Amino acid sequence: MAKRGRACDAGGHWSLTPLARLRTGALCLSTLALGACGGDDSGREGRPIEGCEQFSYSACDIRDAKCQNDLFQLVGCLRGEDLASAGPPPVSLLSEAEATAMVLQDSDPPAATAEADFSAQVRGLELLGLVDPGLIASQSDVIDVTIEAVAAFYQPSTRSVVIIDRGDPLDDSDADAVLAHEFVHAWQDRRHDLNSFGDEPDLDSDRSLALTSVVEGEAMVYQLLLMLAYRGVNLKQANYTGMWQSLVIQGEQLASAEGSPMVTAPGIFPYTYGTRYMGEHWLDGSHEELDAIFERPPASSLEVMLDSSGASLPEIETFDVMPAPLDGYRYVVDDVAGAWVVLSRMLDLMGSLYADSLRELATHWRGDRFWVYQTEDDQRDTAVVWWMDWSDPISAVRAAEMIASAARPAAAQVEVQGSRLRVVVSERGPDLLRWVQRAADGAR
Predict the structure, then answer these.
(1) Mapping DSSP to helix (H, G, I), strand (E, B) and coil, where does residue 424 land?
(2) d(CA 211, CA 11)
(3) What residues pair up with 421 in beta bridges, in sequence order?
(4) Angle between helices 261-295 and 139-149 (to 10 degrees)
(5) pLDDT in tens, 381-399
(6) Cα 30 from Cα 274, distance rounded (Å)
(7) Which of 67, 66, 70 is CA-nearest to residue 83?
(8) Which residues are paired to 162 by β-bridges?
(9) For position 198, what pLDDT does the model report?
(10) For 351, what's the count of Cα atoms within 13 Å in the CB-facing half-sphere?
């Protein structure tokens, strides 16, 4: 999905949203990486990309069938595809309301029990500071927040592209970049089947974020290459490392400004850190290297974050023993926040001025898991247990100090045990100490 100037995509494991299968792109992030956001390149002839010189590098109107076909073929050429194999996918121009209605129609209506579980999930994330209070009241809010923030998306279920029509020009280089990004997803789908990519049992949010970084990171790489070519840049002389790092910095600034890291993560991390991850692999081996990553994708956001540093990947703690519910409570859901969401939460608390030190701290994350519970009475109070593992006790204490500084609308305890950090929050205050005692099960 191409963004409208801020990254706010909803998706991933926790949300239970049908938008988990929408593949997205970030136009404004990409133009920021190039040092400009906006601009009319219509009529300007860019610099042809080596190996794909037969295509035009001037902007065209993406509502035109020939423009769509030319862009699809150009993207296929950049990815080393067989250009005679197929034409472009269908492209629709829809209003926000029409796009929302289409997504809702394509998803199954949630059952009452699913809605109750969803509300408990959201409340648990609010108690941990991972979602801003009141942002999400129902699953339909996730769709509304997403559609409002995007310019286009690819939908694997129908193998089609939807462009949101808000009256903006569709005949400049930015519009071409939007469609090119979505056409990368179309080519990915034909080669790797996006409906099955990441379709695995017990997929948690952090693993889902890492997989999305592969899909969106590659699309961003080719989107940026096209935008550079449109601007007449010699790709052999482009400062790719600076461009990737510019996106990383923008992502951290957005994370600090937007908050709600479990909601904003899929709309920020894949397009920033994910672009750097896939971009550096593209520099190592072009499109063949990127195709290989689909066969061996990263397992966590930490792996995506560490890849550029050359550091060996540490062992990750899974915390696979669930603390049993207290009497009168039921288990609702468990999930993994991951290194990026933890970093985003710290950026939310401390601000992007501390990004360098917080980024370094986040690389010491070694696993986490949280469990959400709800009382079985009509009051439906929520409790959450969150365990995190760090590489060393000092890192655990640093993280605990920041997390403990956050105000919460419920009784809470934050405690460090060696290199492990435990957060327990209970809306039913008298139950907090019992939850603290029960939480020990999760560290086994």
Answers:
(1) strand
(2) 12
(3) 388, 416
(4) 70
(5) 999 999 999 999 999 999 9
(6) 12
(7) 70
(8) 92, 153
(9) 82
(10) 1
One-letter amino acid of 184:
V
Is residue 58 within 8 A of residue 168, CB to CB? The reply is no
Q: Which residues pair with 425 in a beta bridge?
A: 384, 412
Task: Name the percent of the chain in helix, strand, coil, to the closest 5.
Answer: 50, 15, 35
Tokens of 281: 């692999």
Among all chains, which residue has been given the structure tokens 């472009």? Answer: 88
Terminal-residue alpha carbon distance, the chain: 41
Cβ atoms of residues 240 and 269 within 8 Å: no
Name residues of the chain where pLDDT drops below 50. 2-28, 36-42
| Token pair belonging to 127 | 């108690």
d(CA 347, CA 357): 10
DSSP 132-194: -TTS-SSHHHHHHHHHHHEEEEEETTTTEEEEE-SS--SSSHHHHHHHHHHHHHHHHHHHH-T
Amino acid at 427: E
Angle at 331 between CA 204 and CA 146, to 5 degrees: 45
Say what the pTM is.
Answer: 0.90
Q: If DSSP states are collapsed to H, E and C, what string results for 302-322?
A: HHHHHHHHCCCCCCCCCCCCC
Residue in 387, 380, 388, 386 with CA at minimum distance from that of residue 427: 380
